Structures are given as C-alpha cells and as structure tokens.
Fold this sequence. Notes:
Helix content is 74%, strand content 0%. With 101 residues, the protein is mainly α. α1 (7-24) packs across α4 (52-74). Residues 30-49 bind DNA. This is TetR family transcriptional regulator.
Amino acid sequence: xxxxxxxxxxxxxxxxxxxxxxxxxxxxxxxxxxxxxxxxxxxxxxxxxxxxxxxxxxxxxxxxxxxxxxxxxxxxxxxxxxxxxxxxxxxxxxxxxxxxx
Length: 101
C-alpha cells in the first residue's frame, strides 16, 4: 500500500508531463493525457499539483535544470569563449551530419 504522499508517484507524473509536452505540444497537455502516460489515477493530478500550470512549471523547471547540468558537463574542461564556441559548433555540425544520414 502506498503512503499518502508518495514522492515516486509525483516524480512519475512530472516525467509524464514532459513526455506529454513532447508528444502533444505544450498547449495539448491535459490532466487526462498525463495520467494515461504516467499510468496513475486521474485524481493523482490534483492530489500532487494544484493545476496544470503547476505541472507545466515543474516539468519545464526540471528540463531546464537537466539541460544546465548537461551544458556544464559538456563545457567543463573548456576555459575560454573561443574554445566553447568551437566545441559548440563542432557538436552542432556532428548532429547535422547524423540527422542527414
């Protein structure tokens, strides 16, 4: 039996919100879509979050935090602007080549 305030369920809902944004776009996200993706009861949406805006803010905040950590790791050993720009452009060119295949 789950505890009344289950942090794993809350996290699952936030992850499902991120997936819903990717799949349906930010304007297409609904409580029902999130609950279906997270495989949780619809009532969990309002149990853990006051509304769709709070869910979207949490999901986008986590995304921003994750991207910030990834950028910090990506540029950790580069100490100047020229090196950062060079690494960034090389990475973009590699991605463009990968997508062209």
